[in-house]
């Protein structure tokens, strides 16, 4: 079995180190000496209020210590990774809050056998000492369609129970009232998870195996397998499957999602999902619920209760009336609770209309402006050249990491082709370059799109009043100057500027009256191509390649090669 890599000091001490690290960074939390217990640093402020204790195995961070604070938990008791906490530590936490003058203690426990046993035993011992203690067991798992003897597992919905209980305690509610209210809330809640990969406990290998094209539906938060495996499908379909399962009338642990229902939605990262994917899932969940006529009153998106590095997500739905929403919205100082907008998600406008662009003023065509047909031929030649170089440029770019330079230039070429086929060409050179700049900024993307957009925008300025060869040479200089000013690169940094600057040096000859354009442009192209080839001997000084060891960059810079190829295509287009 291959043991997973973890950033820990030791396997036995990782849970203690993690809790100590959170306390070290949060002055509002303190450790209880001799125990893996974290408590509010201002325990004196719970006098006369119900204390709230929770906990369980480590590995679910930010649960549970991240929810310690005014308006949420008073303290937590942590076990080793995926292991119930010790009875003695739970009892010590109860004693600490009791001695601080709390008006009773509520233990909020996820429904797992070890947690129920250990928290339950500590409760009985504390009661024997005269403490007023009660326990609520949270089971919000909606994976199993038939009731299990062990009941529903406690999952991410437990965090919402922490919040509701915390708001009630802060408002001065009695222990009995808090138990009644959170029990009702827990019964109107469901959670379902899906995972693309297993997790691995420090010192061990993966908890289960998944094929590359599979995902696991209905799994728990300790790496245990789910209720079924599915083939990978788009995120929208996965979310629909999850919500269908959670709300199915045949599911004994269903959430009653009737049209008109109001819910709090939690989109929970199980640990290893990218936030890009989390955003996709969150949007799909909101839209799917709204399509069913369900009102999304609040939406929480983030990592709330994880399973180490598991690449997965869980959805929690809590049926909520206005009173429950007020408790969800109540203020808390807990660091892991999000800064939640206190407004309904459903029904609000999500798109702001873009401002209208000012009208383009068509000025008289100056003498010497390029003929429309010649410009079209040049642009078509540039596009075909870039499309033909796509794989070569991608291969050159892989040495610097992402390998998408060819794809980016091909995207620009296709955008220009589409524009050529749908729009009359601007007659003025300055308008042509400005239009191309806007097109590339919108369609090309990446730093290349920004750099070409800068170049063309600046190059358009010298062409506003004239378009003779000297003006085109000045346009080249202006474009390069803008790229250097904002891009930060210079000749010799192994970028497209190496090709462009070499060409600009030759194009200065056009400033002399009567100079023939094509011979000068041919020399400029040759210089650009030679400069592009020479970049393979340069150490990158700018761009992503500057972070790569020069020993790995044995090929020419793809940006320089692309710029030289564009200049070659312009020359061939003018010669045709």
Notes on the structure:
Residues 10-337 form the DhaK domain. The active site is at residue 222. This is Triokinase/FMN cyclase. One of its GO terms (biological process) is glycerol catabolic process. With 576 residues, the chain is an alpha/beta fold. Helices cover 43% and strands 13% of the residues. The protein has 17 helices and twelve strands. It has helices at 14-25, 87-99, 113-128, 157-170, 175-186, 235-247, 275-291, 322-329, 372-388, 390-397, 405-422, 429-443, 446-460, 469-487, 496-507, 517-534, 558-575, and strands spanning 29-31, 37-40, 51-58, 75-81, 105-110, 133-138, 189-195, 214-217, 228-231, 262-269, 295-302, 312-319. Strands 1-2-4-3-5-6 form a six-stranded mixed sheet, with helices on both faces. The protein has a six-stranded mixed sheet with strand order 9-8-7-12-10-11, with helices on one face. The chain is elongated.
Which sheet architecture does the biggest sheet show? Answer: 6 strands, mixed
| CATH-derived topology of the largest domain | Rossmann fold
Q: What is the H/E string?
A: HEEEEHEHEHHEEEHEHEEHHHHHHHHHH
The outline comes out as elongated
Structural class: alpha/beta
Rg for CA atoms: 32 Å
Q: What percent of residues adopt helix (DSSP H or I)?
A: 40-55%
Strand ordering within the main sheet: 1-2-4-3-5-6
Number of helices: 17
Can you tell me the number of structural domains?
A: 2
How much beta, percentage-wise?
5-15%
The CATH class name of the largest domain reads Alpha Beta
Looking at this structure, what is the CATH superfamily of the largest domain?
Dihydroxyacetone kinase, domain 1
Determine the N-to-C terminus distance.
66 Å
Count the beta strands. 12
Mean pLDDT: 92
Low-confidence stretches: 362-369
Function: Catalyzes both the phosphorylation of dihydroxyacetone and of glyceraldehyde, and the splitting of ribonucleoside diphosphate-X compounds among which FAD is the best substrate. Represses IFIH1-mediated cellular antiviral response.
Active site: 222 (tele-hemiaminal-histidine intermediate)
Keywords: ATP-binding, Cobalt, FAD, Flavoprotein, Kinase, Lyase, Magnesium, Manganese, Metal-binding, Multifunctional enzyme, Nucleotide-binding, Phosphoprotein, Transferase
Catalytic activity: FAD = riboflavin cyclic-4',5'-phosphate + AMP + H(+); D-glyceraldehyde + ATP = D-glyceraldehyde 3-phosphate + ADP + H(+); dihydroxyacetone + ATP = dihydroxyacetone phosphate + ADP + H(+)
């Amino acid at each position: 079995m291959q043991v997973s890599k973890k950033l820990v000091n030791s396997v036995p001490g990782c849970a203690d180190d993690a809790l100590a690290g959170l306390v070290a960074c949060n002055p509002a939390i303190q450790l209880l000496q001799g125990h893996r217990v974290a408590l509010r640093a201002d325990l004196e402020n719970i006098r006369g209020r119900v204390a709230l204790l929770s906990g369980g195995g480590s590995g679910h961070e930010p649960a549970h210590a991240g929810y310690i604070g005014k308006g949420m938990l008073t303290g937590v008791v942590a076990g080793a990774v995926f292991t119930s906490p010790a009875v003695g530590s739970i009892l010590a936490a109860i004693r600490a809050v009791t001695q601080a003058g709390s008006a009773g203690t509520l233990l909020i426990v996820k429904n797992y056998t070890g947690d129920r046993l250990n928290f339950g035993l500590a409760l009985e011992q504390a009661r024997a000492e005269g403490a007023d203690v009660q326990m609520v067991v949270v089971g919000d798992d909606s994976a199993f369609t038939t009731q299990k003897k062990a009941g529903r597992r406690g999952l991410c919905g437990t965090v919402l129970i922490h919040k509701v209980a915390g708001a009630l305690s802060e408002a001065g509610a009695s222990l009995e009232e808090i138990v009644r209210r959170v029990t009702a809330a827990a019964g109107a809640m469901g959670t379902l998870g899906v995972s693309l990969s297993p997790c691995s406990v420090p010192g061990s290998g993966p908890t289960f195996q998944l094929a590359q094209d599979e995902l696991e539906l209905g799994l728990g938060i300790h790496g245990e397998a789910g209720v079924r495996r599915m083939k990978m499908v788009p995120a929208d379909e996965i979310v629909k499957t999850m919500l269908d399962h959670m709300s199915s009338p045949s599911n004994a642990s269903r959430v009653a999602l009737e049209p008109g229902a109001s819910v709090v939605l939690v989109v929970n990262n199980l640990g290893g999902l990218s936030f890009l994917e989390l955003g996709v899932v969150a949007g799909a969940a909101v839209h799917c619920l709204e399509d069913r006529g369900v009102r999304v009153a609040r939406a929480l998106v983030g990592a709330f209760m994880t399973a180490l590095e598991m690449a997965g997500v869980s959805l929690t739905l809590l049926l909520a009336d206005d009173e429950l929403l007020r408790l969800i919205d109540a203020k808390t100082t807990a660091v892991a609770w999000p800064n939640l907008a206190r407004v309904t998600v459903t029904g609000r406008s999500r798109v702001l209309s873009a401002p209208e662009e000012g009208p383009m003023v068509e000025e008289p065509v100056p003498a010497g402006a390029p003929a429309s047909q010649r410009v079209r031929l040049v642009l078509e030649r540039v596009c075909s050249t870039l499309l033909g170089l796509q794989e070569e440029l991608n291969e050159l770019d892989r040495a610097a990491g992402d390998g998408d330079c060819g794809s980016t230039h091909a995207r620009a070429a296709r955008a220009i082709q589409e524009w050529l086929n749908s729009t009359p060409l601007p007659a003025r050179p300055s308008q042509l370059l400005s239009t191309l700049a806007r097109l590339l900024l919108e369609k090309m993307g990446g730093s290349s799109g920004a750099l070409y957009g800068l170049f063309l925008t600046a190059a358009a300025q010298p062409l506003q009043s004239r378009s003779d060869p000297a003006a085109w040479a000045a346009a080249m200089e202006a474009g390069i100057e803008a790229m250097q000013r904002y891009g930060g690169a210079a000749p010799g940094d192994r970028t497209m500027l190496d090709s462009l600057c070499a060409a600009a040096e030759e194009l200065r000859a056009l400033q002399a009256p009567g100079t023939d354009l094509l011979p000068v442009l041919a020399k400029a192209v040759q210089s650009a191509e030679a400069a592009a080839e020479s970049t393979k001997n340069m150490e990158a000084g700018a761009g992503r390649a500057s972070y790569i060891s020069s020993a790995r960059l044995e090929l020419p810079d793809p940006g320089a090669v692309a710029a030289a190829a564009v200049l070659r295509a312009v020359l061939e287009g003018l010669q045709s």
